[in-house]
């Protein structure tokens, strides 16, 4: 446990590893002098996001990050952007608001609905309003229970809510209309396993033949149902097979716009050998931090699938002889994505 006090500017009173027991924490709290100043909550959240939950300050990778923000009245700066970035970093923000803005404060109110813009879910779980400071003691147990309910801490990073996943879909003539719909169902079946929103996992899609087409980018759809509907609306293109150019296009049109704190995952689906080189484009996306999965059907070339896939190939490259068998790979791809996520060190 640590404390950041804010007014005009935030500062750390003590961090997560300063005190090892509750007695020392309590004594330290009692010695904190009041800052005074304005109520710059947005600046405080930015400070917490950048400086507080660091390994050097005692952050434990396996423990949820929780920020309980006490606000007297209303913030005097903008909260939305700072809180969005904090949520995307995996910080579960709880707001305890005390009283309301008095007449003198109202002229400084910038975002009257700041709580809904700040919390992980607008379902009341992350926010508590207290009519006066005298009632603050009464919400302690409620707040403790919520913070300890780790299953409901929706902003904690998991393998299902912290990625930008770009599907690169072969729309060449050899696929055919019926099989193309099967491929889209495969894409939908993978997508629906993730928690999708503008701050959770985001989905994008590119279709390619000789040419490439951005079907939708990461910032286009912010709900799971919108993503699934968008996948259904993708029209079969038909043409040749330039997989290398498609990888370059996905890198430029999708992954270059990925958020810094998101894992970049590419799932490429093809049924044939490419007319162009795939090795250099694949090497480039690998070097740019994209985790690449290749899924080949029928006439797909095994050597190209392995070149496209991130190492080790056996965990990132898949082949099936018929389109109707694609569904078999959905659980394995999801499992591999999660296994890889859970094996990586993170804040």
UniProtKB/TrEMBL annotation:
This is Vitrin. Residues 1-143, 164-333 form the VWFA domain. InterPro entries: ECM_Assembly_Org, VWF_A, vWFA_dom_sf.
């Amino acid at each position: 446990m640590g404390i950041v006090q804010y007014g005009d500017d935030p500062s750390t009173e003590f961090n997560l590893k300063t005190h090892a027991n509750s007695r020392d924490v309590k004594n330290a709290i009692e010695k904190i002098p009041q800052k005074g100043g304005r109520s710059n909550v947005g600046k405080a959240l930015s400070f917490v996001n950048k400086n507080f939950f660091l390994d050097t300050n005692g952050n434990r990778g396996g423990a949820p990050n929780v920020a309980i923000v006490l606000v007297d009245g209303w913030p005097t700066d903008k909260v939305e952007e700072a809180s969005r970035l904090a949520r995307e970093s995996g910080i579960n923000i709880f707001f305890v608001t005390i009283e309301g803005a008095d007449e003198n404060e109202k002229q400084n109110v910038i975002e009257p609905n700041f709580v809904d813009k700040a919390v992980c879910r607008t379902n009341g779980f992350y926010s508590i309003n207290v009519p006066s400071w005298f009632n603050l003691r009464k919400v302690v147990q409620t707040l403790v229970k919520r913070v300890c309910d780790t299953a409901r801490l929706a902003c904690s990073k998991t393998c299902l809510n912290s990625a930008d996943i770009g599907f690169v879909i072969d729309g060449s003539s050899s696929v055919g209309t019926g099989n193309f719909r099967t491929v889209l169902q495969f894409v939908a079946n993978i997508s629906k396993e993730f928690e999708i929103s503008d701050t959770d996992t985001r989905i994008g899609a590119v279709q390619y033949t000789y040419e490439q087409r951005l079907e939708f980018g990461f910032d286009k759809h912010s709900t799971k149902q919108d993503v699934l509907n968008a996948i259904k609306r993708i029209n079969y293109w038909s043409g040749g097979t330039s997989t290398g150019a498609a990888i370059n296009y996905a890198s430029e049109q999708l992954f270059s716009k990925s958020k810094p704190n998101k894992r970049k995952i590419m799932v490429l689906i093809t049924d044939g050998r490419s007319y162009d080189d795939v090795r250099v484009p694949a090497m480039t996306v690998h070097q740019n931090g994209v985790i690449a999965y290749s899924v080949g059907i029928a006439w797909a070339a095994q050597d190209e699938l392995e070149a496209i896939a991130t190492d080790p190939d056996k965990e990132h490259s898949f082949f099936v002889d018929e389109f109707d068998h694609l569904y078999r790979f959905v659980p394995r791809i999801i499992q591999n994505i999660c296994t890889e996520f859970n094996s990586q060190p993170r804040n």
